[in-house]
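Title: Request for sanity check on FYVE-type domain-containing protein prediction

Description:
We are preparing a figure and want to confirm that the structure record we downloaded matches what your pipeline produces today. Could someone re-run it with the sequence below and paste the raw structure tokens into this thread? We only need the token string, no images.
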Amino acid sequence: MQLRFPLPAGYFAKFELLSEEAQSFQSLATDIIHETRRDLDRYIHEGRNLLEGHTWKLTKSKDRLHCYRRRSTPTSVHQAGLCGKPGTTGVRSSNESSSSGRARRDDRSSISRPMRSSELTDSSRKGLEPIVVGYGMLDGTVDDLVYGLYQSSTDEMKTLASFHGDESLIDCSVLKTLRQTRCSHSGLKWRLSRTVGGNRDCCYLDCVGVSEDANGQRFGYHVLESVEVRNCPQFVDKSIVRTTMSFCFIFRPGKVPNQVEVFMEGSFDSSADSLSAGGVGDYHSTMEMFFNLPLALAGAEVKKITAMVATQSEVLRSTSRKSGRESHCSICRAKSSLLSLRTNCETCSAVICSKCRIRKVIFTRKGKTKVTCCKICIVKVKDQSPFEGAELRSQPPKLTIKELQEDRNSRDTDLTSCTAPSMEIMNASVSMFSLTDSELSSPSWNSSSMSLQQSDFDENLYSTSGPCNALVPLDRRMPALLESASQQRQYELQHQEFMLRQQMQKHSSAKRSCQYEANSREGLYNQMLELQMQADRAYHLTNQNACMMYARR
């Protein structure tokens, strides 16, 4: 049976994802964002804004947007080839590409998962190697650009495609929403497009939003990565070919106000074969995705005006019209005449003349409709952020394998340095007592050892309210002296093992909680306080043991 498009509502059945699957998709998007931001920092390093000439070629420029195409040469560089040296090889051979492609096809299972493995490695997690790199400047803000790309429902996808004049769209659908907030959206989507070579569909992960990096810098992102979803298999109809794409956009505020710095790494494979990807049509489709970014800013303005019109109360509008029998414009105070008729603003209901009004397009259920807005509301739309007051989700920095190993080694070293002083004090105290008090009896030795272990972990013995040489009755301080030697020794061993385990757990938990602030001024101050407390405890411990032994004599 031949399918008819658009597909009926409910064609794709609703499904639930396991927590591991949802986390895998989120991790994939986060890794791609980190990788693209790293390439952007390499590209603009020291203000060069230059790509490696042996790998990339300037293909097209439009206004202040520039696209670079990967050359079909055997020389390339690591990742996107942004800062490599001529002659470094980064392109895999055809045998390696075909073997890896067969491995990915054989490894497919019934569950939903990304195209790449989720293991933490230095290799790229993008499904396709970038064939086009775009960089440029746009007039606007990061929030408006992200808001224009924000599509959380199927109706919104179709409405924005119609507004942008995308005649290639046949059908689309939001399969599953992974995460949605005011300033970010992550979901699984499906799209069917009409191309010169035939109909092409794609199932992909769409992540768009505004976030903050580890340094507190605000940036926007948009990830489009092909994934496999169990409820969206490839159609049996041979006229529809499943394609693969991999795009990542990074938006950052420019040095000039109301200016956005945009960066893109993208690749589009319309042949469904990784070996023949990168044709002329794929290059044009990839560059078209980049040069259509200004349409997102126009769409953001229309969405904000639509929201303002929707929130305007019908009662307030009717009241304003009835009481708006004024003969003056609320902006320029001009009187109405035959050549200048007055009307009401559709967003604020103010009375305006023909010179102070602007016709703007909004989205309605019937399609695109034009409404009358005053100039004040238009200025407010441009200045107001759609995500004002929203909490941003900060992304932790991604560590490489080398950095992770160094972090583990530093943690082990810090843990050893913290536990070593206390163990050295204990060993020194035991050796001192064994050398100076060798003539003492076996119960006295056991009692001194027991006093050492108890005083090492008892906070009440470290109080400085009384003099340091004040003695406590021996039967109150050490009730274990009243027991036999064998029972006392067994009790000591059990108590020592228990307290050592507690101490190790305490140090490990403290290190885990303080490992992120160790390099800050507050973290160094806390470490200094901990070392001072350990020194005070060792000092009091030595005095107490000495007082006890001399009193015994």
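Thanks, this matches our download. The chain has three domains: 19-296, 303-388, 401-552.
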